[in-house]
Write a structure and sequence with these properties.
about 350 residues, mainly alpha, 2 domains, elongated, disordered C terminus
Length: about 350
């Protein structure tokens, strides 16, 4: 209406004979005769003004639209959740775990990005980070590797349907821990512990076979005593292990002197893939043990007593973080934590 009045006033000023519209109530004023014009045009300041509250700014319109869409989406999402919980309870449990897993994985990604940004800005290396930051980056890298593997095998046409079936049938191998149910986390921990125990006798057998190759008589005696204690279920003391450091630094138990079967047994004990060529197994073991050493130093600096119960629980339920506990056949995860 305001636009029509403005156009009518403009036309009257330029000399066109305009008839007032039905909504114009302002009385026309008599003007000077000009080119046959009998009625003068109303002045612009005489036109009635509408309240500015009726015309919202574009930003206000966008905000109101977004709030409306968000509100409606929450309502629809709530109805959808109630529908699934009422009619498909088993699927609803999986759906809830999947959505929570996505949220936790997204939160991990944002935290990892903040850590990487801090490292880049302050020129900080990985081993210079705190224990929690190092552990978070390490676990996030492993999670991303699993996700990338799933993405690659989903590339062929219609392969995504097969991927969903494989994730449902093999959640331990294909899914990260965020998408495990509480029962699966307990069951998978027992499975990982059993896999570690299976490789321990083989590792001890290799240690016994290399004892005669140790040149120092005192180191041979310490190695024999260590193997005997472990076979009888006794935890060796820290000084007993440190006394054999020289044997594992050089021949015959140095990383560069290990045979393929020995590296495969160590890879199974650390829950690494043993089905790789020898040079890749050696490189991966070196990298893995280096990271474990850096984590141990950071944990010693932090102090084990400063770990929260949630962190201890995550260490027990996460196979990639499960490094020093359950190192011997007689050790259970709970005993190692104690």
């Amino acid at each position: 209406m305001a636009l029509s009045r403005l156009c009518w006033a403009r036309a009257a000023l330029w000399g066109a004979a305009v008839t007032p519209g039905p909504y114009v109530t302002r009385k026309l004023q008599l003007a000077r005769p000009r080119a046959g014009l009998a009625w003068g045009a109303p002045r612009l300041f005489d036109l009635p003004c509408r309240s500015s509250n009726l015309h919202l700014s574009p930003k206000a319109d966008v905000k109101s639209l977004i709030s409306y869409v968000v509100t409606k989406t929450k309502v629809i999402n709530g109805k959808y959740h109630r529908f699934l919980g009422r009619h498909f309870p088993r699927f609803y449990v999986l759906y809830t775990i999947f959505m929570k897993g996505l949220q936790m994985f997204w939160a991990d990604a944002k935290k990892a990005r903040r850590i990487k940004t801090y490292m880049w800005k302050h020129n900080v290396k990985f081993h210079q980070l705190s224990y929690r930051e190092m552990e978070h980056l390490r676990q996030f890298r492993r999670d991303v590797t699993k996700c990338l593997f799933l993405g690659i095998i989903s590339i062929p046409p219609f392969a995504n349907y097969l991927v969903f079936l494989l994730m449902y049938l093999f959640p331990r191998q294909l899914l990260i821990q965020h998408f495990w149910t509480p029962k699966q986390q307990i069951d998978f921990l027992d499975i990982y512990h059993a896999l570690r125990k299976q490789s321990h006798p083989e590792i001890l057998g290799y240690l016994e076979r290399v004892i005669p190759l140790v040149s120092d008589a005192g180191l041979r005696w310490h190695m024999t005593e260590l193997c005997t204690k472990i076979q009888h279920g006794t935890h060796p003391a820290i000084h007993d292990i440190l006394a054999l450091r020289e044997c594992f630094s050089n021949h015959p138990l140095g990383m560069n002197q290990l045979h393929a079967l020995q590296m495969k047994a160590l890879s199974r004990a650390m829950l690494l893939t043993p089905y790789l060529p020898s040079f890749l197994l050696r490189h991966r073991l070196k990298t893995h043990t280096t990271v474990i050493h850096q984590l141990d130093k950071a944990l010693a600096k932090l102090g084990i007593g400063h770990l929260t119960p949630q962190e201890v629980k995550s260490k027990l339920s996460c196979p990639s973080c499960y490094t020093t506990w359950s190192c011997f056949p007689s050790t259970t995860p709970a005993q190692g934590a104690e």
